[in-house]
Structure formats: C-alpha cells, structure tokens
Design a protein that fits this description.
Structural class: alpha/beta
Distance between the termini: 37 Å
Largest sheet: 7 strands, mixed
Radius of gyration: 22 Å
Number of strands: 13
Number of domains: 2
Shape: globular
CATH topology of the largest domain: Aspartate Aminotransferase, domain 2
CATH class of the largest domain: Alpha Beta
Strand content: 5-15%
Strand order of the largest sheet: 2-8-7-6-5-3-4
Bound molecules: pyridoxal-5'-phosphate
C-alpha cells in the first residue's frame, strides 16, 4: 500500500494550508471538496488575463481558446474519453434536466422509466417530470431496510416497456458502491429493447474517479466541485444517446468540434479551462506517489484514485469501529468493503442537529439533513426529514489528526450501546 504524503497533498489545497492553528477539520466533502491550487491557478489566470471571447485573431484571444481546449483535452484524457463525449453544465442537476428534456421525443405513452429510491433528487425529479409529460410510468426501485438496492425488485420491474434506467453509482447517504456493469447486464438480459442506462456518479467520483469507458453506460454524470475543481457538472453521453436525443444546442453548432448537442450555450470559459488543473493534480499526485511518468492521464487517474480510496478507507475503519460501540443506527454497510468513505447515521435519543452543533463547537465541519436524498430517507423510515441523518464524508486530504479530532468529539457525545453500558 502506498501511503499518502499528507504534507505534499495538503500543500495542494490552499484551504488546508499548515499550520492548522484553528484545528479546523472538514467532513462534509460529499457536499463539495476543496479545489486544488492547480485548478484555482488556471481559473485566476483566465479571469485576470484572458476573460474575453476566445478563439479570436489576437494573441490573447487565441490563448483564451487554447486554455479552454487544454481544459477539455486533459479532462477527457483523465477520464479515458473523447472530447466530444463530454458536456459541461452548471451542475449535475442541470445536466440531468437537459438530458431528460432532450429525450422527450424518445418516450411514448405507457413507456417505463426506472429510477431508484436510493437516488439523489437530481436523478429522480428530471425523469419524473419527463414521465409526466409523456404519460409514461415512473418506477422507483425499492430499497432494503438498510438502504441497499432491492435487486430482486429491480429485476422484476425490467421489461419490454423499459425505455430508460437511471441509478446511482453510489448513494450520497449510505455510501454503498453499486456494481454498474452487473446491473447493466441484468437490464440487458431482462429488456429486449436495450433501454438507455444512465448513471449518477456524483457521490462516487470524489473517492474513485472512474474509468467511464469501462462502464457500459449511455450517460454518466458527476460534479467537478466534488472532485477538487470548480462548480460545474460533467456529463458523458454515448453515441447511442446522442443519436436519440433532440439537440439542445444552436442548430449550426451540431457536429462542431467542442460542442456537445446538450450544450445550450457556452458554459463559463474560465471554468472549462480550469478543468486542466484537476487533471494536472491527479497526474502530479500519481507521480509524487511513485508512478512512472508515462504522460498518460488516464493511468494517473487510476493510480491516484486507488491510493486516495485506500487512505480514506483506513480512516473510515476507525470511525466505524467507534460507531459500532455507540447507540446509533448506521445506514448501509457497517464495514468498509463495498462502500466509499461516506457514512450516515442517526443517534438514538439525540437529534442529528445536536451532533453537528457539538462538532462545530470544536471547529469540525459536517452536516445533517436529507441531503436531497429525500425519498431514500423516507424509505428508511426517518420521521423528521429536516433533521435527517448525520453525514460524515471523507476526502483523501484528511489525515489521522483530522480523524482523531472527529473521533474524540463523537466518542464524548454519542451514547454507548446499552449492552456495552451494562458491561
Ligand atoms: C449523488 C448525487 N447526485 C446528484 C447530485 C447533484 O449534483 P449537483 O449539485 O452538481 O447538481 C448530488 C449533489 O450533492 C449528489 O450527491
């Protein structure tokens, strides 16, 4: 196992600059990660020097365009994709909405669209609205008592009527990683017309940036403000979905390089340029941690992601060990295997809000609530959805000192389990 060089890593994130005199530790990374300096630098430079219509005849206009091209090229390479496979939107919610609207012509009365109770509302609402407009049926796949997908219910809902299936790679509440290709195979076996398979990777990508081409999907969405960059949503779309969708861009931009048919207009130019910074960060991280510099960004993504995931998992293990002794209900798996480092729980006899406030008193940031996974919390039987769950989510730049700060407070404030209290 390659150990993270935290000194180096934290130096890449201005917010984490040492010494951490205020003892600030941040565990709401599923809500958004800190941006890395590589991305910030390009953003800053672009806004200061090149904020003009790009691709013009002057040197500066040309440079603005070149920086944008570099952003597109590097992020596509990092993800193992072609530049033309990607759409840049304001957010993943926006990308899902655009995708759903573009598929209006693909859906007919009585068709079925499948989503799951495990999903963030971004990946339910868009499809629900589409289904309503076309008199189609929206099916919500049920979850087990702990929030895991009920795969037998999933299978039983698939049929010749299924037109679209959209589900999450991992839930922003329970953290379980769903086996995308296994579910994809089940969909193919059950549905003769091969529906569109769409995956929400927002919660998964920060922990393990995926090789999207290895996933047999028609669309994959994630958000760069949760993967160490600017506030934006990226969407991969397959050739199949591109053919079926009605273009949302200006007609004269169809088939133009750098334009996706889902780009209504140009997104923030500086933000596009800054995507190169995310790729640079993964590459520098990989090289710093021992990878041979072969210049392949996709290799760097894989190498870096594995180290990041392992380091987060080590910290999560300690949190789980503590939580097991406490009088809490953990949602999802109570072990690290099969999950990303994002965990939610409720405390018997204590409001989630009070847990978060006690952490905040010690300058530890985390959050409570439903995190827009409203339907999942309802399905889990949580009564007060505003108080919701306590969510602790890691990113690789958190170290043992951060974790000990967190565990110290949780150890003090969470009640012990009854059986242990009796011992
Ligand atoms: C699993 C999941 N899907 C979708 C979204 C929506 O992403 P965005 O904020 O980019 O719209 C979020 C945001 O937290 C999320 O956690």
């Amino acid at each position: 196992m390659v150990r993270i060089d935290y000194k180096w890593v934290r130096a890449q994130f201005p917010t984490l600059e040492e010494p951490n005199e205020n003892g600030f530790s941040f565990f709401d990374n599923a809500g958004g990660t800190f941006p890395c300096r590589q991305s910030n630098y390009i953003l800053f430079k672009f806004y200061n020097d090149y904020k003009m219509q790009p691709y013009g005849a002057t040197k500066n206009q040309a440079e603005a365009g070149r920086l944008m091209d570099e952003g597109r090229r590097k992020i596509a390479e990092l993800l193992g994709l072609k530049i033309s496979d990607l759409t840049y939107g304001a957010s993943t919610t926006q990308n899902f909405n655009t995708l759903a609207i573009s598929l209006l012509g693909h859906i007919e009365q009585d068709d079925e669209i499948i989503v799951t109770m495990q999903d963030h509302e971004a990946n339910i609402g868009a499809w629900e609205r589409l289904a309503k407009q076309k008199d189609a049926k929206l099916i919500l796949i049920e979850v087990e008592l702990d929030g895991e997908l009920d795969l037998s219910h999933f299978k039983s809902c698939l049929s010749h009527k299924t037109k679209i299936v959209s589900f999450t790679h991992s839930s922003n509440i329970i953290g379980t990683v769903n086996d995308v290709n296994k579910i994809g195979k089940m969909i193919k076996e059950q549905c003769p017309h091969e529906p569109l398979v769409i995956v929400d990777g927002v919660s998964y990508a920060p922990h393990m940036l995926p090789d999207i081409t290895a996933l047999d999907v028609d669309a994959y969405c994630f958000s760069t403000y949760k993967t160490f960059g600017v506030h934006m949503g990226l969407m991969f779309t397959s050739e199949k979905i591109n053919r079926l969708a009605t273009p949302q861009c200006h007609f004269f931009n169809i088939d133009k390089p750098n334009y996706s048919i889902f780009d209504a207009a140009g997104p923030d130019h500086a933000s596009i340029a800054s995507l190169a910074g995310i790729a640079d960060y993964y590459q520098e991280f990989a090289i710093h941690h021992g990878m041979n510099d072969n210049g392949d960004l996709n290799d760097a993504r894989k190498y870096a992601s594995e180290i990041m995931h392992e380091a987060e998992t080590e910290l999560l293990k300690d949190l789980l060990a503590l939580i097991r002794r406490k009088n809490v209900r953990v949602y999802g798996k109570e072990r690290v295997e099969g999950r990303e480092a994002n965990i939610s729980f409720t405390v018997y006899g204590m409001d989630s809000k009070d847990v978060i406030e006690a952490l905040a008193q010690k300058n530890i940031g985390a959050k409570y609530g439903h995190f827009y996974a409203y339907r999942l919390l309802e399905a889990l039987g949580i009564k007060d959805l505003e108080d919701g769950v306590v969510r602790i989510s890691y990113a690789h730049y958190l170290n043992k000192a951060d974790n000990e700060r967190l565990l110290g407070v949780l150890s003090d404030i969470l009640p012990n389990t009854k059986s242990l209290a009796l011992v």
